[in-house]
Design goal:
6-stranded antiparallel sheet
Length: 182
């Protein structure tokens, strides 16, 4: 009798969770799509600590998600936005003044910022040793409210692996997964 009750409970949970997924996919107005953002940034390392995080200047993204949704289907817009999550975030080495590479960055945290919203942690990397590229781990944070405006930006906090007075130029590539529903 206990087995029957447990088995019935497990089957009901599977049924209910799959019904939710089916309902969400039916409500999707458009298939989920990626919105990318790339920019070159210069990070000065003269004042970056090797023991605590140092904040770099804000990086404006100014992504107009309403326009991106309308590119997919002109009938829909920002009011149909259901979800925005970080899909990918990488940083690639371009150059530096004194020859340092990205392995000078030991750890980093990336936050998203928008008006009337608190800064939100969206990606991290710890114990980096790669001199040419850094792939960040997403926190899987929901960023819906940060994209209801096109005044959004990123902030990077960095811990250096060693003292340096260099300025490193790097290319930041991001991808955001966007879902639009009724």
């Amino acid at each position: 009798m206990k087995r029957l009750t447990i088995m019935t409970g497990v089957l009901m949970m599977l049924f209910l969770s799959s019904c939710r997924e089916i309902a969400n996919s039916v409500l999707d107005l458009l298939p989920p799509f990626d919105v990318t953002f790339s920019t070159n940034i210069d990070i000065p390392f003269a004042a970056v600590s090797t023991t605590s995080y140092t904040r770099t200047p804000e990086i404006p993204m100014n992504i107009n998600l309403d326009a991106k949704i309308k590119e997919q289907n002109p009938k829909y817009g920002i009011n149909n936005l259901k979800s925005v999550k970080l899909n990918t975030l990488t940083v690639d080495y371009i150059s530096s003044q004194l020859g340092n590479k990205l392995d000078v960055i030991k750890s980093a945290r990336i936050y998203i910022k928008a008006p009337n919203q608190p800064e939100k942690l969206i990606a991290t990397v710890d114990n980096n040793t790669n001199p040419n590229s850094i792939t960040f781990t997403s926190t899987d944070a929901e960023m819906l409210e940060y994209f209801r405006t096109n005044e959004n930006s990123l902030i990077i906090d960095v811990i250096a692996s060693r003292p340096s007075a260099d300025v490193i130029t790097m290319k930041m590539n991001t991808g955001f997964k966007v879902r639009v529903q009724l």
